[in-house]
Write a structure and sequence with these properties.
By secondary structure, the chain is α/β, with parallel strands linked by helices. It is built from twelve helices and twelve strands.
């Protein structure tokens, strides 16, 4: 099967690309929202062709805007993965309509299923499990279904700070993966410290959770921006990395880059090839152009079967 390969941009002369990081960043993904996508004149100037692009569905975003963004990205040669936030979807009829529109208008056959960022469900769905139980994605022929992973727990799911409910949900999703044709993976919230992430990933493997992990990485951004988003998104223990940096007034105004976090995980992956973190997923909190530039300068690239690009739409 033919592959589309992005030719990496020239990196600055003083920046040496680490082979370990380059390997770790291969086939990275990135997230956009319709309102941020509108500000990008040409995605091909920023992202390797074939990059998986998640489209975040924030409560209140019209489905027309989501589908239009999906179609644009697909036509430009990207593998599009829209969010399906369970608590925003009222019923099976709405879910079926969204699936049909993404599929019919943009050729989408993959999705990220998650509970969504609202406290109370607007209809019959509360979790990604509820969405999977409908069977609608399988019926529509969706090939790849990603679900959320929580390296530092999730207070919405486990108010007591434990991992009990999160772990039970993962066990259910693992069984779903093992007994259906779905190709599943975990896409996690962004983190900042490698050691806790490595311990979490190893613990999942020991518990029989073999779903590939796409680790969330916050793209380069102002420190204040990252702290704000981290608190809002419930990032836990690894937030201390940012808090420690914030105490150094000489670094307070400098952009924070994920260089050390990615390098540490890449080194662990190189030393442990079967490590279950397989991909990097970027949250471009400091802007997609800034994030895309950092990724390419550090060796990021992407390949994808031609059937998943614009020729498939």
């Amino acid at each position: 099967m033919a592959l589309l390969q992005f030719k990496k941009k020239d990196t600055p002369a003083d920046r040496k690309v680490s082979p370990q990081v380059e390997a770790f960043l291969k086939d990275y993904s990135i997230e956009v929202m319709p309102r941020t996508a509108e500000k990008v004149e040409n995605f091909r100037d920023l992202l390797p062709e074939g990059t998986r692009v998640y489209i975040a569905h924030i409560d209140g975003t019209p489905i027309d805007d989501m589908v239009a963004t999906a179609r644009r990205l697909a036509e430009d040669g990207y593998a599009v993965m829209p969010h399906f936030p369970a608590r925003v979807i009222k019923d099976q009829a709405m879910l079926a309509d969204w699936i049909a529109r993404y599929q019919g208008e943009a050729g989408v056959d993959q999705a990220l299923l998650l509970a969504g960022g609202v406290a109370q469900p607007k209809g019959q769905f509360e979790s990604s499990i509820n969405l999977l139980e409908t069977g609608l994605f399988d019926k529509a022929g969706f090939k790849r279904l990603h679900v959320a992973g929580h390296p530092e727990g999730n207070r919405d799911i486990d108010p007591d700070g434990s991992m009990k409910n999160v772990d039970e949900a993962l066990a259910w999703k693992q069984k779903f993966n093992d007994t259906t044709d779905a190709e599943m993976a975990l896409a996690t919230q962004f983190c900042f410290e490698a050691d806790p992430v490595i311990k979490w990933a190893d613990a999942l493997h020991d518990a029989g959770i073999t779903l590939p992990i796409h680790i969330g990485v916050a793209g380069p951004a102002k420190l204040q921006t990252l702290i704000k988003f981290s608190i809002a998104c419930g990032v836990g223990a690894s937030l201390r990395v940012l808090q420690k940096r914030a105490k150094d007034v000489t670094k307070l105004l400098l952009p924070f880059e994920p260089t050390q976090f990615v390098a540490d995980l890449a080194a662990h992956k190189a030393a442990n090839p079967n490590f279950n973190i397989t991909n990097v997923h970027f949250f471009p909190l400091g802007g997609i152009k800034t994030n895309a530039t950092w990724a390419i300068e550090n060796g990021g690239s992407s390949t994808v079967p031609a059937s998943q690009t614009k020729d498939h739409v």
